[in-house]
């Protein structure tokens, strides 16, 4: 069966996906399956689009692709994603806030309107080195990958657009307020898909010969699983960036007065990034149940077909994890976010929902990776059933899960950058622990 992978968005929360992928890689090795790519169709949105593109470009070596993602996400810092120093924060964030409050009265602010709260130019440079999109055609030709899709939302037309490349000809599809177009994927598509509204600037992309401004693909995304199905997936693994359902129980409400800007922004982002996926999974499960009730004759008369779906999502609230690491943000960022209601750490933290999307720091991302790894291994039987892998007892210790990624365990970030530069000079391209970007 052709297997699809859905990677959803969520800024720094996407580190959780890497832990899940590492768990799948380990279970795959335990099953003795080493050479084939487990995902023939990969679709990503927002930060998930970056992870998806990395897997697609390295579809000929899934383990190596996951190791590369582990190395990057475990050593990532905010300044590699956005300008987090004092000058960068003042240049974009402070000016943006001033424009919101006093810009109407100051003519010069109207002439130099800031585009976003943060400048993500460092991410553009990182992706240009990191994601080898020029390898996609070779992956298609060699049969390692069938299709890769990246979604964005057009501020210009209001349409939700899925850009895709595929090995075989796939007719573009059109639905209400969403469409798909075949395109040669670029770093611009990844930046557009991951441009969190208000926080990162929009990206200009060509759509059918017209230039349009695009933002985060999670906006107006009513059917996150749809691209993989249209591109031929017969079963789909979905990796979420937040808990799909809160457990029933008594709600604990704190008397905090009127919600801060940070609380409102975090709530809005949760709606953008999390709710559509839960609704789409429920819709798919209902369709599967309905199709199971049809007779074979009736089933042949409908274009619908059952899609096996496995969802792996965080077992803990990522907001709570972010609250424990808010102090890891660079000081200029903490100062700026304090003005909108982000404060404290741990149980006394406020605004952690917003912070969770911006916490590109190892203390936070490593904990999410470990959570994704643990959640996946805890569902070993479900993963084995989904892929049809033989059930076997664990053969290796937890430490051996990192056997291919020991590089980052022993080298600090500064040493990592020096080693990366030395390897790039020797090999003609940036590498990390044998992974060619």
Could you characterize what this model shows?
With 437 residues, this protein is an alpha/beta fold. 43% of the residues lie in helices and 13% in strands. It contains 18 helices and 12 strands. Strands 1, 2, 3, 4, 5, 6, 7, 8, 9 and 10 form a 10-stranded mixed beta sheet that branches. It has a two-stranded antiparallel sheet with strand order 11-12. Strand 5 (174-175) and strand 6 form a beta hairpin. Helix 1 (15-30) packs antiparallel against helix 3 (62-75) and helix 6 (121-130) crosses helix 8 (187-193). The relative contact order is 0.17.
State the end-to-end CA separation.
29 Å
N-to-C SSE string, H for helix and E for strand: EHEHHHHHHEEEEHEEHEHHEHHHHHHHEE
Total E-strand runs: 12
Radius of gyration: 22 Å
The major β-sheet equals: 10 strands, mixed
């Amino acid at each position: 069966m052709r297997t699809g992978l859905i990677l959803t968005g969520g800024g720094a929360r996407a580190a959780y996906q890497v832990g899940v992928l590492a768990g799948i890689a380990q279970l795959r090795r335990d099953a003795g399956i080493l050479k084939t790519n487990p995902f023939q169709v990969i679709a990503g949105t927002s930060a998930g689009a970056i992870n998806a593109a990395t897997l697609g470009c390295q579809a000929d070596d899934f383990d190596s692709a996951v190791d590369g993602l582990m190395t990057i996400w475990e050593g990532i810092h905010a300044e590699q994603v956005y300008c987090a120093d004092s000058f960068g924060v003042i240049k974009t964030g402070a000016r943006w806030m001033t424009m919101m409050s006093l810009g109407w009265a100051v003519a010069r602010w109207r002439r130099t309107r800031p585009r976003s709260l943060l400048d993500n130019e460092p991410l553009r440079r990182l992706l240009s080195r990191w994601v080898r999109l020029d390898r996609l055609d070779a992956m298609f030709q060699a049969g390692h990958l069938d299709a890769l899709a990246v979604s964005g939302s057009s501020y210009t037309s209001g349409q939700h657009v899925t850009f895709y490349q595929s090995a075989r000809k796939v007719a573009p599809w059109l639905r209400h307020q969403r469409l798909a177009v075949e395109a040669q994927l670029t770093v611009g598509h990844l930046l557009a898909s991951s441009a969190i509204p208000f926080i990162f600037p929009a990206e200009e992309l060509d759509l059918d010969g017209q230039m349009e401004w695009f933002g985060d693909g999670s906006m107006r995304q009513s059917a996150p699983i749809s691209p993989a199905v249209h591109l031929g997936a017969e079963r789909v693994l979905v990796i979420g960036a937040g808990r799909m359902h809160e457990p029933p129980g008594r709600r604990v409400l704190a008397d905090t007065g009127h919600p801060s800007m940070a609380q409102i922004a975090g709530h809005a982002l949760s709606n953008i990034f999390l709710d559509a996926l839960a609704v789409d999974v429920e819709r798919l499960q209902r369709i599967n149940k309905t199709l199971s009730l049809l007779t074979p004759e009736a089933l042949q008369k409908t274009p619908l077909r059952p899609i096996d779906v496995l969802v792996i999502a965080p077992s803990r609230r990522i907001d709570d994890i972010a609250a424990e690491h808010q102090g890891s943000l660079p000081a200029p960022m903490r100062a700026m976010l304090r003005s909108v209601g982000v404060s404290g750490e741990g149980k006394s933290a406020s605004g952690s929902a917003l912070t969770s999307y911006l916490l590109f720091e190892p203390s936070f991302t490593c904990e999410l990776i470990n959570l994704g790894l643990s959640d996946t291994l805890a569902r070993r039987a479900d993963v084995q059933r989904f892929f049809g892998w033989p059930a076997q007892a664990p053969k290796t210790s937890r430490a051996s899960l990192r056997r291919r990624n020991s590089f980052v365990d022993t080298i600090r970030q500064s040493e990592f950058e020096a080693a990366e530069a030395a390897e790039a000079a020797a090999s003609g391209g940036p590498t990390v622990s044998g992974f060619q970007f």
